[in-house]
Amino acid sequence: MAHGELRGMLWVWWLMLLASSWLMGSVRPDPQVPCYFIFGDSLVDNGNNNDIASLARADYMPYGIDFAGGPTGRFGNGLTTVDVIAQLLGFEDFIPPYAAARGRALLTGVNFASAAAGIREETGQQLGDRISFSGQLQNYQAAVQEVVSILGDEDSAANYLSKCIFSVGMGSNDYLNNYFMPAFYSSSSQYTPEQYADVLIEQYSQQIRTLYNYGARKVVLMGVGQIGCSPNELAQNSPNGQTCVHRINSGIQIFNRKLIALVDQFNTLNQANFTYINAYGIFEDIWRNPSKHGLTVTNRGCCGVGKNNGQITCLPYQTPCPNRNEYLFWDAFHPSEAANIIIGKRSYSAESSSDAYPMDIRHLAQI
């Protein structure tokens, strides 16, 4: 073989090696868990309310103004916390809404969340239709039956589901659109804040047990955030439009304390790994130290009407603020994408020992 011919063959071999290593490097690794199932309300709804008779919808501009797909039904300008967590878990795409996912799409998980939904059936009824947590669980049970059909038998499905992450974030509307809305609901005249938290936790416990009975083993319970600091509550109940509403936040703290105890209770079950994300504490840290997080406006919505841009929430085709990444709140009730990124990152990988109990989502995924 001639020297030039040998050199040519070596050159071709080298190019093939380079191409091979480049292709290997560009293959996306598998996500850390096979699937991610999401239950919740408007903080994480990504389109399940779009086609139901509800005032709690966000499938119009300027919602989604910073999201690649435009308005999808997400209640913000861009990503939600679960979108951020899905990315950090390594999923190639965002988890789809149950309303648009069937068949094999269920195998990577779906989002069952519905705006205005609560633990209690009546919660949010003044806003029209919504899928309560019980309704979301019924949809999940139907999805499990599909997963059993796809994988062949119940044992295979149970083994598969035991590796998935389940995120549950309920309770906000049971306060915002129930207990602290006496014009529509009698719960605040029936129960003290302590009694109401007990009633909620009792029902929540039964609902979460259903989730466990249908295969959930790695479960994230999201605490309720500081609703008393939202632009809507500041506009209605704060003396100066800046001081958070203590009676609302203190009621929520009672619920969150009981939720931590519920995590301990569920972790005694066979193979159960439940964890609590301290959304209240993470939010409080952002509220108290906004500049540390690149935020400048904490008491106004980027899009809304009236005092604090919070008396009426963001209207269809309203022009929002231009500096959205500096706002803690997108509208009268919901955090901005900038805030959701912070909360999502800290839920996945705790920055402080108080962010998660007993572990963050990154460690839960590794179990």
UniProtKB/TrEMBL annotation:
Q: Which InterPro entries match?
A: GDSL, GDSL_esterase/lipase, SGNH_hydro_sf, SGNH_plant_lipase-like
* Location(s) in or outside the cell: Secreted
Main localisation: secreted
Q: What is this protein called?
A: GDSL esterase/lipase At5g45670-like
The family database entries (CDD domains) matched by this protein are listed as: SGNH_plant_lipase_like
For the biological process aspect of GO, one term held by this record is:
lipid catabolic process
Identify the Gene3D superfamilies for this entry: SGNH hydrolase
* Alphabetically ordered keywords of this record: Hydrolase, Lipid degradation, Lipid metabolism, Secreted, Signal
Q: Does the keyword Glycoprotein apply?
A: no
Q: Name one GO molecular function term.
A: hydrolase activity, acting on ester bonds
